[in-house]
Amino acid sequence: MAFEVDQAFRAMHSAVGAFVDAAAERFGINRNDQRCLEILERLGPLTAGQLAGAAALSAAAVTKIVDRLVAAGYVVRDADDTDRRRVVIRTTDVERELQREVFAPLVREGLALFTELTDEQLRFLLTVVRRATAINEAHTRRLRATTDVAQPPVEA
User: Fold this and answer.
1) φ, ψ (nearest 5 deg) of residue 88
2) In this predicted model, what pLDDT tens digit does every residue of 45-90 receive, in sequence order?
3) How many angstroms separate the CA atoms of 152 and 129, rounded?
4) What is the DSSP letter of 153?
5) CB contact burial 28-64 (16+ within 10 A = b; e otherwise)
6) What domains appear along the chain, each with residue ranges and CATH number?
7) pLDDT in tens, 87-115
8) In angstroms, how far is the first alpha carbon of the chain from the final one?
9) What is the helix (H) or strand (E) element at residue 76, kind and residue range?
10) pTM of the predicted protein model
11) What pLDDT was estimated at residue 155?
């Protein structure tokens, strides 16, 4: 049974990745750009440094991403509400409307699926998902901590 659950998680991960790719195509942006938009949607306005940390990208990469997202009309650089010297990146109404168009049907069906579960089942599922997320984050850090790059095998 554990193998079947692992296979189901892997299939779900692939399906989520394919959906994110399709969403990025619909937005006319690349996957890292889409990832940064998702982070801004989830966490709200962030500085470029905060966004870089949340996305595990370099400051230079985030600067280029934000430049592209500004040009596309999906985000703006704006003065922070609490510290006018600080610049934050905010999503625009255009981005939020496209987010609703692209993601709302998926969210609606996902939430409907959860209504079929008891509170006890939901608590258990939440625990599993949080632990699986932590495992993935730990292994992401493990992979990024090494400079080793796999070389493809040379065919004879």
Assistant:
1) -120, 160
2) 999 999 999 998 999 999 999 999 999 999 999 998 888 889 999 9
3) 33
4) P
5) ebeebbbbbbbbbeeeebbbbebbbebbebeeeebee
6) 7-143 (1.10.10.10)
7) 999 999 999 999 999 999 999 999 999 99
8) 40
9) strand 75-79
10) 0.80
11) 77
Residues 6+ apart with CB under 8 A from 114: 122
For the cut 80, the answer to whether the pLDDT of residue 153 exceeds it is no
**At CB < 8 A and 24+ separation, what contacts does 26-33 make?**
26/98, 26/102, 27/72, 27/74, 27/98, 27/102, 28/72, 29/68, 29/69, 29/72, 29/74, 32/57, 32/61, 32/65, 33/65, 33/68, 33/69
Cβ neighbours of 12 (radius 10 Å): 10
Closest CA to 90 of 102, 72, 78, 73: 78
At 108, the amino acid letter reads: R
Cα torsion 91, 56, 30, 33 to 10°: value is 10
Q: Is it the case that residue 41 has pLDDT exceeding 90? A: yes
